[in-house]
Write a structure and sequence with these properties.
Elements (H helix, E strand, L loop, with lengths): L1 H24 L8 H8 L2 E6 L4 E3 L7 E7 L2 E6 L5 E7 L4 E2 L2 H4 L7 E4 L3 E7 H7 L3 H26 L3 H13 L4 E3 L4 H7 L4 H12 L4 E3 L2 E3 L9
Antiparallel strand pairs: 1-8, 2-7, 3-6, 3-8, 4-5, 4-7, 9-11, 10-11
Helix pairs in contact: 1-2, 7-8
Length: 230
């Protein structure tokens, strides 16, 4: 009996340590003291979702927010004529549903896994509780403002690029400068990621095809010396 309890305790400690390491890598918790991260870890689960499985539905009571460890999650709203309007697709290390901490008590959109996904599920109540502690509140707000500045600079940078430049930046920043890529995104999803429409992306890909960049199926091939000139 004692051995069983001990082994259960060890497994729980290992799981909490694993979650703690994941939280430390997230932009939302960078700069947060380990004493606070430990408390958050105890209120966090690692959850697995299969393709097509729902994380939550629009209008559900918002109890948790999430960090993507692996996979991709599609966020969408339902229109009055039952169409699905995709708002965003979130990928590895991105956070979603954090709006429930400050703004809403219900989820403003539906979240569905598009591929096999692994998520950190964080209880919002522990964050709200910790925000009553001045030390945590200062650290957390400082982190949020730092990320807002980073996003503003990134947006300014991306807005200065044309579609081709944004596409190449998307490839290099997400997958590195390679000669071949295997994407788990559709062209429609990539178009959304780089702030354009599928038709414009198709025209741009046709142009890049003359330079030897070929997108076929889920694979993209790039000429050997292409990146040297970029």
């Amino acid at each position: 009996m004692f051995l069983t309890l001990y082994l259960t305790y060890v497994k729980n400690v290992i799981k909490i340590m694993e979650i703690l390491k994941k939280l430390e890598k997230s932009y939302l918790f960078q700069g947060i003291d380990v004493q606070f991260l430990s408390q958050i870890s105890k209120n966090t689960l690692i959850r697995n979702f299969n393709p097509g499985e729902f994380v939550f539905f629009e209008g559900d009571t918002g109890k948790y927010f999430y960090i993507v460890l692996e996979g991709r999650i599609e966020l969408y709203k339902s229109s009055s004529d039952d169409r699905e309007i995709v708002l965003k697709t979130v990928g590895k290390e991105e956070i979603f549903a954090e709006v429930i901490i400050f703004e809403k008590n219900t989820y403003p959109a539906t979240a569905k896994a598009t591929v096999k996904s692994r998520l950190l599920q964080i209880d919002k109540e522990i964050i709200i509780k910790l925000l009553n502690i001045e030390e945590f509140r200062i650290q957390f707000i400082k982190t949020l403002f730092s990320k807002m500045r980073e996003l503003a600079e990134r947006l300014k940078f991306l807005n200065s690029m044309d579609v081709e430049e944004r596409f190449l930046f998307f490839l290099s920043s997400n997958y590195g400068r390679q000669n071949s890529y295997k994407l788990n995104l559709s062209k429609k999803e990539v178009a959304r990621e780089i702030g354009t429409i599928p038709e414009t992306l198709s025209r741009m890909l046709k142009k890049l095809g003359k330079e030897g960049i070929i997108w076929k199926g889920s694979s993209i091939t790039v000429p050997e010396n292409f990146w040297k000139n970029k």
